[in-house]
Design a protein that fits this description.
single chain, about 600 residues, alpha/beta, Rossmann fold, 3 domains, 4-stranded parallel beta sheet, about 40% helix
Length: about 600
Amino acid sequence: MGDLQPLPDELRHPESFPRRTKAGRGLSVCYRGKTLLSTIDPVTQAERTAEAAPLRDSTLYFCPSPLFGYGLTRLLERIEAAGFDSAVLCAEMDRELLALSLDGADSAIPALLDHPRFSMPGIAEAGSLPGKSAEESAARLCAFVRRRWGSRRFRRVEVLRFSGAWRLYPELYAALAEALRAGIATDWANAMTLVKLGRRYMRNFIRNLALVPRTLPLSGLSFGMEPVLVLGAGPSLDGFLDSLDSLGGKGPPDRSGRGPFRIVCVDTAIPSLRARNIRPDLVIALESQHWNLRDFVGARGWNAALAMDLSALPATARVLGGPCYTFFTPWTGMAFFGRLEAAGLLPERFPPLGSVGLSAVAAALKLSGGPVIVCGIDFSFSADSYHARSTPGHREKLRGQNRFRGILNQAAAFRAGAFAALSKSGRPVRSDPAMRNYRDLFEREFAGDPRLRDVEGSGLPLGLPTLSFAEAAAILRHGNIRGAAGPEKPEAGNPEYDRARAAGLREVIGRELGALEQLLRILRGNTAAAPGEIEALLDFCDYLWAHFPECAAAGRRPTAADTIFLKRIRAEIEPFMGLMEITLREIGRG
């Protein structure tokens, strides 16, 4: 592999270089006062470990600090003999030991580097350069596994130790193994989401393409260097919004008629803001399902600006009555997305963060070069407070209160998996694994950004400096965080109907309809297929099958020889054609 290179001499430390001694079959190693390989027969001991390893299909065997790679060849032979789709991943986080592992004279590892079931990323790839955190090392290693073998290749991680060198960094190797497990679990959770909601995402996406000629991409909006307050809908939102009274609501307007800072909120926070007569500068909407319309009850014609994902529920764009901006979050890889992007018809791409709160923070960081204050993104709750006051969930609990049922939400607070935690202000709160995963994702994505600050309250720590209400109010009133910088851009207004983009969309969708019609004629038996034509059409129209369980899990489709698969494809074609025809009519009405 190209990323594995011997370390340059200037990076080595001769006074602490590992000492090798002959020991039966192989070499023993002493390093930093520890014996890392057996002094009697290290090869035999490693092979016994390989023989004793439990073999399972779709398993990633993680081998921390393998040194000379004794036992790895035998492990790979057993995996291949069993016919399992498993693989071996080695990681070395010590510079000197990595050089030792790549020494072809004594190590078995160089001969294994071209093996399709084996990989050992170098130091830079694994993320162990000086100053890198364990979290960053883990993220890089997970990304390497996805590049090397693809997503959802494995179902589990087994740790095998062929040497004692892992004891030099036990916490780090444990963190890497846990990150690999979490990464695999996340990939499979994403596959399940794709199975459940992939068809709906695509249906919404096709309908929302009609918005493209009528709206600006979110990149067409800018807040310049103004401070931005990002509001989630967690319980801590109430205390902070009540404290805004000290600012005079949203603050006294400047000459342009705006207050001294901007507000970006998630859609679920709309009722809480309306109850306090606070209008945000931008509402972020991601939700693809109809139940999310509860957030907009009573807000029709509110004239608030909206930024929505192209996979969000199409009705969302018609409620608030203010300017509408669009962005795009790819939920999976699609050839259709590539064709639209090549034609310049997709708005700004956002990373798939899975949470409207995280997307709101990402949007605020793009829109302003000034400070960004986060509040109400809690990832925690209590028995009597799951969301902020006036939100749909809170109102539902109030409406359901009677002599037999109180306002406490015991079902959420004490359900399986929920656990006790401490908030950033030291208060006892509750959380669950899904919220904790989003909190961890927030920290990986945003911790370390000098413009970001969090506000005290009942939320979990986000890896950001925490401000009191008074400190946050001072920043929002008066300006910048030291070190924050960003370009000043004029704020763009919404465009009139863009005829060039409308013409481009009509052309792209027309080609899609042509491909779908041809595939339908072939599957009906009305047209004979040329050699390879069905395969090419299935790849072209990948949105027909991307949400099928077997396709979402494997990341690929069955062949055209699978007649059951083709019958299911046949049932998908006409509904998608109908959606595209509706979109074409809406575009034509511009």
